[in-house]
Amino acid sequence: MPRTLTLAGGLALWSAIAMASDSAPQVEPGRATELERLVIQDCGSCHGLTLKGGLGRAITPDLMQHYDRHDLRDIILDGIPGTAMPPWRPLMTEADALWIADYLRGETP
């Protein structure tokens, strides 16, 4: 019986850790404000101020919902070679990029 409880407890802890690592990224409220401005100003300079398209394609929540948040994070961090989409990795963390991916998908708090 104790071994079963230990196994069950270990599985519960592992599940909690796995869920936490895939949940909304943790950014400070001030950083969230900075990231929102970055999306509007920097992303908006190519994707349009309302993100409905310009030099770059539209990146509105209804369109971004079809993309996995981790794929969007990778595009944000590494850019798209051969296109005008630059890599942002030198300027932000993975948590920042996940926050932006969630923001673009309409999923930020």
CATH topology (fold) name: Cytochrome Bc1 Complex, Chain D, domain 2
Mean pLDDT: 85
* Uncertain stretches: 5-21
Order of helices and strands: HHHHH
Structural class: mainly alpha
Largest sheet: none
Distance between the termini: 42 Å
Please, could you describe this protein's structure?
By secondary structure, the chain is mainly α. It has a single domain, classed as Cytochrome c-like domain (Cytochrome Bc1 Complex, Chain D, domain 2), CATH 1.10.760.10. 60% of the residues lie in helices and 0% in strands. The chain is globular, with a radius of gyration of 18 Å. The termini are far apart. Residues 5-21 have low confidence and may be disordered. Pfam families: Cytochrome_CBB3 (PF13442). This is Cytochrome c. GO terms for molecular function: electron transfer activity; heme binding; metal ion binding.
What tags apply to this protein structure?
single chain; 109 residues; mainly alpha; Cytochrome Bc1 Complex, Chain D, domain 2; globular
In short:
The protein has helices at 2-22, 29-47, 61-64, 69-78, 94-104. The chain is mostly helical and 109 residues long. Helix 2 (29-47) packs across helix 5 (94-104) and helix 4 (69-78) packs across helix 5 (94-104).
